[in-house]
Amino acid sequence: MEVRLNDVIDAIEQMQDNEEAWYDPRRQQIVFDHPDDAEMERFIRLPDKYDRNDYHNMKLFIAGLDDEGEKDWLYNAITGQGAFRRFRAACDKFHILNDWYDFEDACHRDLAIDWCEAHGIVYRLDRDNDDEDEEDDDVSDFLQEDYSEPVQEPEEEPAPFVPFHIVALQEKNLENALVLYDDYRHEVLHLPSDLQAAEEDLYHVLSAGEHAYAVSDHGRLIGLAIVENTADALVLHDLYVIKDMRRNGVGHLLVSQVKQLAKEADKPCLLYVPAISSASASFFLHEGWQLTKRVEMYLE
Question: Most exposed among 98, 188, 212, 257, judged by the fewest C-beta atoms under 10 Å?
Answer without folding.
Answer: 98
